[in-house]
Amino acid sequence: MALSNVLETPAAGFNFDNAARNAALEGLFERGQAPKPLKTGTTIAGVVFKDGVVLGADTRATSDEVVADKMCAKIHYIAPNIYCCGAGTAADTEKTTDLLSSNLTIFSLNSGRNPRVIMAVNILQDMLYRYHGQIGANLILGGVDCTGNHLYTVGPYGSVNEVPYLAMGSGDLAALGILEDGFKLDLELEEAKELVRVAIHAGIMSDLGSGNNIDICVITRQGVDYIRPYQESEFKDNRKIKYRYRPGTTPVMTEKVVPLKLEVVQESVQQMDTA
Amino acid sequence: MLLNLLDTRGLRSQLKDSVPVAGLCPHGAYGVQDSLRSGFSSVKNELLPSHSLELSEKNFQLNKDKMNFSTLRNIQGLHAPLKLQMEYRAARQIQRLPFLQSSNLALDTLRGSDEAIGFDDILNDPAQSEMMGEPHMMVEYKLGML
């Protein structure tokens, strides 16, 4: 076996070895045939109401013209009081929110405090700016902490905005229209949920990249209510018959039983302390 | 400064981390240019990074440390970064042999990176790398004898 000519151990983290090859291959493929990452093509929205924050998202994940996932979960858990909707490249949003959640858990274990939304935003901002937008994650962070109810948006280059209502993704124009029209300060819970639902619905109707069901996540000081799905799409396909086969449908031709010979090699008995 | 005093031949290899060395060995495995993965060999390929993030990621930790030390120097005076850098140097010397993976626990604690998870903890973990370098060559490279 030949040992390779490695002079230093490879650095941890991203590996750019294939970047030159990918750039060369990009030119070889005809237009539009190069493999593309799975994008979510989404409508996500968030609204701050009197007692907390409501986040909403559709559930379609597309890969160019094909719907890759009809029940994609776009509302990710960050901390018990912070949730995050992600638009953009699906893998990037997943991994980034996972890392963020792990960092905040370490922090809260170390300090014994609940994390604040602004901490999550700062960590995300640093992480995304470091990679200069190569990580395609557009995120809406919403949460309730000791300083109040917050809703932030973080762009792929690390730009941050704090806003009372927000929509992102490819369907954001339609959703934002509904939100602009219907938003008032200090909404009630049911009004806020209805507003977000209508906004996401508008995004689903007007955008090809959004569709299927609507998920809603309500975050309040008392806790989190993750309703998935809040509203199912009318065009859900109903299977007409059951496709499960009865046991015995396939006839058994031959049967051969080979008993496994097991030897007892070691036996140790540990007495339980029943006091 | 401290760097001049300690710049013996053995520690020269530490500088290689910040400057990409061209022509020392072709990028492919087994020392031969790997045309399938990296294309035909050209000077441009070896000198310039192929991805916009490559250089910035390679030097990220170094640049971050430099920035922190210079801020510390401006706020607290020269003694603060000097003392810290002394501790860093001491911690960096607690390593296994070059071809074995060391945990760098002391260095992590000093930097504060034992309480943070980033992409370099998940992706391309050196402890699980599939290729092993030739031990003799790696030790010679580290000592500057190669």
TrEMBL record, chain A:
Cross-referenced PROSITE patterns: PROTEASOME_BETA_1 (PS00854), PROTEASOME_BETA_2 (PS51476)
Swiss-Prot/TrEMBL keywords: Cytoplasm, Hydrolase, Nucleus, Protease, Proteasome, Threonine protease
Protein name: Proteasome subunit beta
Domain of life, source organism: Eukaryota
PANTHER family hit by this protein: METALLOPROTEASE TLDD (PTHR32194), PROTEASOME SUBUNIT BETA (PTHR32194:SF9)
Molecular-function GO term, any one: threonine-type endopeptidase activity
Assigned protein family: Belongs to the peptidase T1B family.
Subcellular location: Cytoplasm; Nucleus
Active site feature: 42
Predominant location category: cytoplasm
Reaction equation(s) it catalyzes: Cleavage of peptide bonds with very broad specificity
GO annotation terms (biological process): proteolysis involved in protein catabolic process
Subunit structure: Component of the proteasome complex.
Keyword Nucleus found: yes
From TrEMBL, chain B:
Keyword tags: Chaperone
Keyword Chaperone appears in the UniProt entry: yes
Coiled coil: none
Any one biological process term the GO annotation gives: proteasome assembly
Gene Ontology CC: cytoplasm; nucleus
Family to which the UniProt record says this protein belongs: Belongs to the POMP/UMP1 family.
Name by which UniProt lists this protein: Proteasome maturation protein
Source taxonomy: Eukaryota, Metazoa, Chordata, Craniata, Vertebrata
Gene: POMP
